[in-house]
Amino acid sequence: MALLGRLLPLALALALGPAATPASPAKSPYQLVLQHSRLRGRQHGPNVCAVQKVIGTNKKYFTNCKQWYQRKICGKSTVISYECCPGYEKVPGEKGCPAALPLSNLYETLGVVGATTTQLYTDRTEKLRPEMEGPGSFTIFAPSNEAWASLPAEVLDSLVSNVNIELLNALRYHMVDRRVLTDELKHGMALTSMYQNSNIQIHHYPNGIVTVNCARLLKADHHATNGVVHLIDKVISTISNNIQQIIEIEDTFETLRAAVAASGLNTLLEGDGQYTLLAPTNEAFEKIPAETLNRILGDPEALRDLLNNHILKSAMCAEAIVAGLSLETLEGTTLEVGCSGDMLTINGKPIISNKDVLATNGVIHFIDELLIPDSAKTLFELAAESDVSTAVDLFRQAGLGTHLSGTERLTLLAPMNSVFKDGTPPIDARTKNLLLNHMIKDQLASKYLYHGQILETLGGKKLRVFVYRNSLCIENSCIAAHDKRGRYGTLFTMDRVLTPPVGTVMDVLKGDSRFSMLVAAIQSAGLTEALNREGVYTVFAPTNEAFQALPPGELNKLLGNAKELANILKYHVGDEILVSGGIGALVRLKSLQGDKLEVSSKNNVVNVNKEPVTEVDIMATNGVVHVISSVLQPPANRPQERGDELADSALDIFKQASAFSRATQSSVKLAPVYQRLLERMKH
Predict the structure, then answer these.
(1) How far apart are CA 96 and CA 45, in angstroms?
(2) In 621-653, which positions are buried (b, 16+ CB within 10 angstroms) versus exposed (e)?
(3) Per-residue DSSP letters for 417-431?
(4) Edge-first strand listing for the sheet containing 489-494
(5) Which of 188, 191, 163 lies closest to 177 in space, CA to CA?
(6) Looking at residue 25, what DSSP letter applies?
(7) Beta strand extents in 282-333 (DSSP E only)
(8) What is the pLDDT of residues 71-114, one digit of tens each?
(9) Which member of 154, 180, 436, 589 lies 3.0 to 4.6 Å from 459 by CB, making a disulfide possible if both were Cys?
(10) Which residues pair with 666 in a beta bridge?
């Protein structure tokens, strides 16, 4: 019976299979980084960890894969050293760190891990050393010797001058009355300290860095008989105020204080949560032009967007940033938060003047420059930061600036500066009308545009949207950069000046003397009505010179045969609108004749059937015209391809004759002509 009792659990485990086996808990980011450091140090012996040290400092980091290959921390070069992993020590004459550290009480463990100053101050108090040596289970976040040495002299003096109150309270705030290992230190959690049950803020970041009130965990999980010791790089102090309360008491936040009150965000900033406030100082607000600042402060929606752009969705301590990070704000934009040496950067700028001011609901970093989101900007302000300054100057010179700075909902189609490398057009009535047709009567977003959509301009024109595989175009002009959505207007950066359509394809051809022979041919072939009616056509239009380059006999023969003429002309017309910006490497465009045209683009040169297009994108209401200098021949009219078709027909006949011979098994010999044909086919 006893044997059965032992075998039954085994039988059940086998029957249930692997799914019944409990999964091992996932490793924390800190543990994964420590594991990577072990892997990098294993060639030096057991329990050896690779450590990156920033050159010229005492800062050391366990290394993750990215840092290992970059060999940089906050842009500063590092050197690799090899040390015993936490919890292990060297043995004379042995390779690596084969021995576990001796297990002793908390007080003695402080000395073992090198926190001798914390041990010394513990000894000075009357009550704490007996606790650390006695029974119980505790966690101490022990400041390193360097952390104590870096305290301002007046702070340290106030602690050591009153060891049984101030120093004791400070040390108790670093302690928790239970054992807490790193796998339990979760991002955003609060631990109750042994000083008046005050909270300690814990953040455990994806890059493996753990902070305690924004102090970095240097070495963790040093076990003791009555608890665990974690070594940290700062002396931490109690947190009593929330973010809103800190704004209220800081003199440098006078303008921010008024802005928060006007926006109603004070409720958020005094509530629960863990945020990072990139708090603009008075100086930051003063750097903004008064007109811009007054406009935003007087617009509740723009003001709220402005302030939300300074609030990150989670608490981010400075010590957690060892390389560039993309962090999302409450406004929805992404900020690039990085570091350069000891300085934090926002979008590459070292604008943080004071960091890691802790609050009960997050952390504050003081910044000396306002972070205005696109959603709070006018079109003028959006354009000032984009590659469209030349176009915006034209709008201003044409007296259209009020459209770009007012509250009118519109979308600006602004050609990029390179479009005007050969100069800008003179400001006259024609140019002003053209500019009006670069403003759409609605605030659009490119992700909602669809093929065939009609957009109305302030100039009264209707523009079409064309969606291609790799391009999004409005008439002949394609969007060249991500759109910027402002308070009232959206900016589309375009790759060329837009030309609204004027008249049908036939109107375009008739109005250009270069196409008089083409127009006459279209009329002779009876295609005028087709190219005048509503539709979507791409016309590759041969010039008069192209027709005149044909052999005289061929041109006369073509003009005298209406059916053949219509066939060739239809081969010049595609059955959809293809502007040059939508071509890409190669597009096969079906013609009205039935065969396909091969249209390609390379180095800004468009070719059709390998023939160069001399002018692109003459827009019409029912299509687009591209100018070519030769008459295109359909495949059936090309000599080589006619020969190929004859050869294919002959080969089919030969195959049928061979099949017939085999099927009848007669002694009929294949005609010599077929035999000769076979030989020719083989070659």
Answers:
(1) 4
(2) bbbbbbbbebbbebbeeeeeeeeeeeeeebeee
(3) GGGGTT-----SHHH
(4) 439-440, 410-415, 489-494, 484-485
(5) 191
(6) P
(7) 311-312, 325-328
(8) 999 999 999 999 999 999 999 999 999 999 889 999 999 999 99
(9) 436
(10) none
